[in-house]
Amino acid sequence: MTRLSPAAIRGLADFLALGPSLVLGTCDETGKPEVVRCGAARVTPDGRLRILVPMPEGRRSVANLTATGRGALAAALASNYRTVQVKGRDAALVRWPEHHSAAQEHLAAFGAQHIRAGVPGELHLAMWSRRFTVVDLTPEELFDQPPGPTAGHGVPG
Amino acid sequence: MSPVSLSELPPECFEGALAAVLATSSTDGIPNAAWVSHVLRVDDRHVALWCQFLNKSRANLEGNPIGVLLMTHPRTAQQWRLFVRFARSETHGDTFEAMVRRLGAVTSLTQQPGAVSLRSADVFEVLEVSAVEIGPDKAAEPPAPVERGRPRTTPEVVAALSRLSESVAGSEQLEGLVESGLSILASHFGYDSVSLYLLEPLEGVLYALASRGFPHSGIGARIPLGVGIVGTCALHRLPIRIANMRHEIYYDRAVQEQLARSKGGEREIPLPALDQAASVLAVPLLLRGNLFGVLATEGCDLAAFDDCDVHLLTIAGLLLAQGVALHDDEEGKREVSAAPPLERPRGSLRLRYYEADDSVFIDDEYLIKGIPGRILWLIVTLRENERRSTFQNRELRLHPALKLPSYKDNLETRLLMLQRRLEEKGSGLRLRREERGRLRVESDRNIEIEVIPANGS
Hints:
By secondary structure, chain A is an alpha+beta fold. Chain A contains three helices and eight strands, in the order αββββαββαββ.
């Protein structure tokens, strides 16, 4: 079960629907970190964090998730750099037939964010592959990461 | 993917146009991912990050010094992973100073300079670099690098420099020199939006002498040393390049610049600036080791300017600066004939002069302040008191009310700025340079002068 409050989970779900840039941090069992851009992230009805990890570039990330169960998803809106990070555990690979439509929705919202931020129009289309491995995590901690001195402090709830 | 070396990464990746990501891990295996606004390439084996707000990453690196940086090319979306090992934190030296200057330029746009300080520059040894393998089924091929729309090959650049130097060498008038110089920067170099600032040493501020390609010219606008990109460039006498002005930290820069540089409310002229600027480059103009001014350009593309632009704009700016300085020197040596009388006035014009800051208002509209304001007040006062319309530069230089330095007074450039500001405002008062060393003040209206003493009484 997640330790986050229902309000925090709802806030996270709303934020992810805005089309933020998504990166997933993992590490292997020796502590060597890995990072990859992700194709979408959603909150499931039971409060799990569902992430679309693109392949082949996400191969090591998925291996790390399988080995350690832990991942950190950082999400930032290109238009205003509002940023959050979710740390999760108990990673599990899942089948999700709707993942293609979720990926399309995220790509459209992400592209709109990029355009608002002045990034060239088609750039977002080339940032990750379109084949995905879908991973669920139990959100454990949520961090607010504004570009300021409070970065890294937990969001209450 | 096969490893590549750090030196093979395109310089655009280090310009901060797209944020990088730093992933670390705690000693108990909990990963962390943080966005990093700027990565500096220190040498072929090291990079440095701002240690400003990376609280969790720093804590992780204390126990586990290995991290991975994800960097993205701002025009092709190609990505690289840099596996790094934390090496040291630097609180002085070239790397730290380079970051302080950049941070200073950025923070001065959004808050009072110095409000955010750099804790340290964190230097990482780069262990391995690998290109991120994106599958063939991505939504689009990576875009081709955006052509910047201006010549970058040697023959064109040499021709452009030749054209500029010919123009500078051949200009009889200071106004023509500045105008044609900025035009050539647009037509031959592709810098469509450029502004030239000159230092006013007596006031410690820069004045916008001329600009091209902005919604408003900003002629006469002032910016103190150390404020904004131009002021920071001047203070440190080093080029400042911003690759992504739309980052939140640069947001609303026009408003914030005004706040930072103005305590006078309406008594400031807006700086020349593009509303949608994504990239800015400002280079200092140094003559004989002294700061003369700043040449700045803006563009609407991300990472529009690179190292080549820094060199090119510096060469072009120095050519212009030498031309301007030469005109000022020559003007000081000329003697000229005397003047015709005033024209007959029709109607009146009210000029209000505030002694406190030398600001001048014409018919209640702010015109200019500082030394240019004092010059205008003096020549209009002389015109009214002595009933003559022309003045020799020499008599202005020597007039005790202006308190100009006996050496390098930049009077010609100040008069040019004043002339153009008056033209822009259409205030019924005009300056004309009839010939070198002689200035004519024109108005078909009777000028009423009101002086507000410094004590406000």
